[in-house]
Amino acid sequence: MPATLTPARLRAERLAAQGVGAPGATPAAVVARMTAVQGQDLGQVLWAIGVRAPGSTRADVRAAFDRGEVVRAWPMRGTLHALRPDDLRLIASLTAERTIRSIARRATELGIDDALVTRARDATVDALHGGRSLVRDDLFDHWRAVGIDPAGGRGYHLLLRLALDGLVVWGPTARVGQGIVLLDEWAPATEDLPDRDEALRRVVTGHLRGRGPATEADTAAWKKLPIGDVRRGAAAAGDAIERLGDGLLALADRPAPGGVPTGHLLPGFDEYLLGYADRSAQLPVVHQDRVVPGGNGVFLPMAVVRGVVAGTWTRAERSTGIRLVVTPFEPLDPAAVRALEAAAERYARWLVAPVTFDVAPPA
After folding, report:
1. Would you say 90 and 160 are in contact if contact means Cβ atoms under 8 Å apart?
2. DSSP characters over 150-193
3. Is the pTM of this model over 0.90?
4. Reading across the β-sheet that carries 214-215, which strands appear in turn?
């Protein structure tokens, strides 16, 4: 391995680690390899998993949630992620206390104190025990019935706090969204939590397994951990981590790049960008505002060619199927158009629905 990776080689290595377009993995195996997948939008995270499990369908990904193999919760950064229940417990052992401290001021502003958290906990257990699930609005109705007002952001904040305490997760899929369940009933722990050094080793190697090569700063930003903790985890990993130069780390036994399609249609909030503090290798700085318009924190779905984000895409449902339109940043060559058209065909197979594909003039 050269001391310095070229940008093209770095992108190829990262695509290989991410498993984008690599066949053979089940939805549950994809999530296990990634450790956690950004998931504040359910529809987007279903496709984030599906694009890494070619041959699966949307129904297959939903089934992984329905079986309790995958859940959604707030393991770090106050952001919903999809992950295995045991990985949720592992990450939360490192991050939950810090996150609770970070939201304490907002809790006070909302009039939330320990007594109210306890009341919400008791009401939630009463509503969900015995394997029951409720969508958020129905759970909030139960809270109102016992005198807990979820209006004004209190409901969201209380639900976040109960999740950080390890009580609830988003579990089985519903007609709209997901049902909220008691974590330990829905998906009982299958292993004991390790000590802190081992937990740090697992989360650092987990980040690199699904995103390497990456820097310590990338891992710290993704996990919202102090850089010292990241270095401690990397040291615990020993020779399992290879140092590639320019501050980049990767697993020594990482998959070789190549053997996957050259074009991909990735969802919004995809880990191909969100997994790194420095995203310039994949997304040229000049185009970053087009993926995150106005820097508002909303990442649009991305059209990727040869590892570079080349545009965004939208979908519109029609009576005859889905119309998918790619808006490139610059004119696409014929090979790029064919690669993205093939990606649209893979998306259609995942949806099990007809998809028409168009390329708009460059934005």
Report:
1. no
2. -GGGHHHHHHHHHHHTTSEEEEEE-SSSEEEEEHHHHS--SS--
3. yes
4. 214-215, 248-251, 241-245
* Nearest-10 crossing angle of helices 154-164, 114-128: 80
Count CB neighbours of 280 within 10 A: 11
pLDDT in tens, 145-176: 999 999 999 999 999 999 999 999 999 999 88
Length of the chain: 363
What is the SS3 string spanning 75-103?
EECCEEEEECHHHHHHHHHHHHHHHHHHC
**C-alpha to C-alpha distances, 112 to 5, 140, 179, 310, nearest whole angstrom:** 50, 15, 24, 45
Domain ranges (residues) in the chain:
263-359
Q: What is the DSSP string of 272-307?
A: HHHT-S--TTTS-GGGHHHHSGGG-S-PPPEEEETT
Tens of pLDDT, residues 222-278: 999 999 999 999 999 999 999 999 999 999 999 999 889 999 999 999 999 999 999
- Residue 5, Cβ density class (10 Å: 0-12 exposed, 13-18 middle, ≥19 buried): buried
pLDDT (0 to 100) of residue 84: 98
CB 150 within 8 A of CB 158: yes
Instruction: Report the C-alpha gap between 210 and 272 in whole angstroms.
Output: 10
Specify burial of residue 136 (Cβ count, 10 A radius: 0-12, 13-18, 19+): middle
For the cut 80, the answer to whether the pLDDT of residue 316 exceeds it is: yes
Q: State the residue for tokens 């930003």.
A: 221
Q: 294 near 326, Cβ under 8 Å?
A: no
